[in-house]
Design goal:
alpha+beta, eight-stranded antiparallel β-sheet, seven-stranded mixed β-sheet
Amino acid sequence: MGRRKKIVQECEQLMDKPEQIRNIAIAAHVDHGKTTLTDNLLAGAGMIADEGEATRLMMDTEEDEQERGITIDAANVSMTHEYEDKNHLINLIDTPGHVDFGGDVTRAMRAVDGALVVVDAVEGAMPQTETVVRQALREGVKPALFINKVDRLISELQEGPEEMQERLMDVIGDVNELIRGMTEDRDDIDDWTVSVEGGTVAFGSALYKWGVSAPSMVRTGIGFPEIIEMERNDQRLELHEQTPLSDVVLDMVAEHFPNPLDAQPRRIPRVWRGDDESELARQMREVDDDGEVVFMVTDISMDPHAGEIATGRLFSGTIKQGQELYVSGTAGKNRVQSVGIFMGGEREELDRGVPAGNIAAVTGLRDAIAGSTVSSVEMTPFESIEHISEPVITKSVEAENMDDLPKLIETLQQVAKEDPTIRVEINEDTGEHLISGQGELHLEVITQRIQKNQGIPVQTGEPIVVYREAPQQASREVEGVSPNRHNKFYITVEPLSEDIVDAIKLGEVSMDMPELERREALQEAGMDKDTSQEVEHIHGTNILIDDTKGIQHLNETMELVIEGLDEALDDGPLANEPVQGALLRLHDAKLHEDTIHRGPAQVIPAVRDAVHRALIDADIKLLEPIQNVRIDVPSEHMGSASGEIQGRRGRVDDMFQEGDLMVIEGIAPVEEMIGFSSDIRSATEGRASWNTENAGFRVLVDNLQREKIMEIRERKGMKLELPSSVDQF
């Protein structure tokens, strides 16, 4: 029997024992060594041959991932590990670290109960480390810490035991500060800070495959003094043999991460807003494999032979071939064709069903997208997965040959299904298709894959930055009149506070919530009590308040009012860019008695016109997306590196020394950062390392407003004169 077959059999036997299952994700800043660590764990579990240095990148299954040396897609693998005479089934997801692929990290966190956060000992906790810790804690996922590349402290920085200890304690302190800040007001979490004594911190070198933790030091007698000596004497192989990294990390996973029976009672109320007294809620809390099937899809991938594979977490029931299941938000049922588990890049089909508490790979769910709830009974779907950053860059994609057009449209629809952080707009009239993503690299990877995997030659336009429009002050009351003059609407607009906008973005306020909960959340974010009771509709980060009193026929007309409002907010009055952060109040309305005279053709234009005029009166301005920038560079290149930020309408907020490098932190507009990578390389002779992180939107400076609005209007083929009432520029 092959080794792989044996592992698949072991996994099958352990699936029915939820107390021995651990669902975990590995998450970190880009290049801190997640994928190399995963290779170690696979070698330790006997899944791949253990050959000297672990640089196999088994989990980077796509060609472009191997070429670029980064993880782009989250990859799943199931393995077994014996700890304290018990075999454990470990379902692991290796997630990307690059900020452009943050959506994959957020989705992976929904499927797991524990997150192994990897931090580079030399670089310490970086901006993206903070983001992944935040994503884990928001989903109720328990963290543990692995500090990687400790060998570099010894060999490159020549540090002694005291200096090393100090540096490592600083890293642990930084991570704990993040955890504390994010879990203070959570009642369902005790104390999740990590500690060496508690056994939730491990140290090591993923490249040379050795690792230590407090429990392993007791077991093997190898501590930091021995490690320093063996590293300096080039005894890395002996070090790996005496204290293998995979044992240290997998022991920590088995000991300290919750199993589904511990985790689900805490996680279900956080990710599901259904009736917690119901039988279904009980089945999910108890991980009942005889219950109804409840499966949350966290990832969609394509298999050339099997078609679409939906991977996700099974919270209750047992998923089997031939079952007919509902997919939230779609009509009818989907029939399960096969179920299996992932072994790295390959899927192993199973003849049996997969029970609750596991991560399963299912084919046949053709209506599912990443984020769907799949179940055997109709139910309240899980909370939508909130992605921390929104698309900020757009490219147009066109097929070089018209014959490829249908195939290109199909491929783009598939891309949007697999990655919800990508937005695809298909314009049937012009044959131009726009894809918006998290950054240049994100779009580059997507367009490359369309060409390579689908064999469609495409042409892409220059990257276009996505702007927003937002009111800056309160407007006067504006009257909107319908084309037949029989209906009138009176509307005002004012800016929403940052706190309320953030609460909507993070999913803490939505129309799907029970009204009382929504009211409390809005009041907590700073909205006054009376306003929070009259919320009629939320669109993007805009809120409509119904301040009218007893108007006849308004109830049946409200749907059309909302439709007109949504249209007006999707295409702002300045340059047809989306509006954000507006609080709209409907004060009064005069409606015609006869339904026929207050149909869509009358109400929608009236509301649309009133909203646009109110926004203009509220001094609406264009907002541009900005990024936080961090550059690590030797001090002799500091001037030219900070010049690169300042020369891009950016500002430098801080400069400090870290080890032998200078760190420059600042912010800059996304538009100016296009092409930054080649410029910073030449300015610093290739000695700088940097990373950017999307930091939301800010008002574009006044002297650029008019020019930028005209540029966008021209690109979109709009009239070049602004409405006469726009006099703020």
